[in-house]
Amino acid sequence: MSAARRAVPLLIASALLTACVATVPPPKTQLQVREFQTQTFDTADSQLVLKAMFNALQDEGYVVKNAVMQLGLMTATKEIDLAPGRSGPTAGDISSAIGSKWSVGQSEPTTYRKVEVRDFTGNVTDFGDQTKVRVSVQRKILDSHGNVVEVKPIDDLTFYQDFFSRMAKSVYLQKERL
Length: 178
Known about the structure:
This protein has a domain at 72-82 and 111-178. It is 33% helix and 30% strand. It has helices at residues 3-20, 30-36, 46-59, 157-175; strands spanning 38-41, 63-68, 73-81, 113-127, 130-143, 148-153. Strands 1, 2, 3, 4, 5 and 6 form a 6-stranded antiparallel beta sheet that branches. α3 crosses α4. It is flat and about 80 Å long.
């Protein structure tokens, strides 16, 4: 068999393997992230916008931890149970061993992702006859023992679009005093 004939199957196989590899999108630049984390509202009343942010967060189940009106700063937290039904100890459940001491040779019980904590930070700034808002949300995953498994910022365009849509409705309701 000639070298050219042997090379053809190798080229076809490598082309198929290359086509099967999932393409990973390049990481977003800080400027791209900042762009979708920022929204401008057509009102010069930054206090109204801050109050609307407060209401939008409460509607979403966040607990507002801190609000500094003079700085336009707000922080909030939301906890999401990732393992509903696995919270209490039951016979044979892996959570029944939590809190007990393990003897030598006994393995630690299996852990699982238990809680997602979303930490929100919002900044409201006067911007001429408008008000600029920038928000960021960090996602933290805790396991069934309360240990941090994963921490990363949410950098999903749709997530922020949805939040700003709810906030725009809240701004409208605040303006109309509803």
